[in-house]
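Justification of resources, computational component.

The compute hours requested in this renewal are based largely on the per-chain cost of generating structure records like the one below. Each record pairs the submitted sequence with a full structure-token output. That output is archived, and it is also reused by downstream analysis tasks.
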Amino acid sequence: NISEKPTSSIPLLMRMVPDGNVNYFSKQSKFDVDVWCMFAACDNVIHVEGEGGKAYDIDTIKPLARSLHADGVNLNILHFIGSHFPAFRNFPGEYSQWGIAENSSLNSAGSFLGNIKRRTTNADKLDQYDNSLYYTDFVIESVVRLCETKEYPIWIMYVSDHGESPGGTIRNPHEKSTWEIPLCFWFNKSFREKYPDVVQAVMANVDRPVQTDCVYEIICWLMGVSYDGFPRHRVPFDPSYRSPVRMMGDKVYVK
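The structure output for this chain reads:
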């Protein structure tokens, strides 16, 4: 329990938790100023680099493995590039299961966005989007395989900040694919045994409608962090949860 209401910043929240520690491992560019400012308060900030200077989401696994331990309360944030446009840049060639094997026609000289527009059809974009999903599945599975070997409680939450419109306009505000995103949870054996009520609450409420503006409260709830006036009604797994009116731009979202 924290006596005072904390900031809405997850890194600053962790500084208020006894023995709290937060690490940020990112494939996103370190020149993304907004993201840099958001996570600058973390105990460790690492922008991963792969072989030959080319990094992929899987390269966040090594620093994660070094940071997993049973002491204190630890939050590790992995920031993937995922299926962010343009998707063809986000996975190694061996994960090209559909479409152009080596993406060679997408990497020719000239204006980057100009090449994307001139040299790719909607079918190409969908193929590369599917390839990025295939690779992301591999990366998430790698995180799970690492965490399931640990004998102390671990939970994983996977969530996207936005969707995409892979077959046409980038993030078309009128397409549901731009707004609909995954929100997934996983618990290792130790967590399931020590906190069965938490696991049961999540499993019992998987169909509840949510928006990403409750991610902060979900993280607090999963870590067992509470404070005076904690809005339990914003946690989808709490009995007092009040479903929000979900919006798609300026319109009410209808599934």
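The first strand starts at residue 20 and ends at 26. The beta strands are 20-26, 44-47, 73-79, 155-159, 183-187, 247-248, 251-252.
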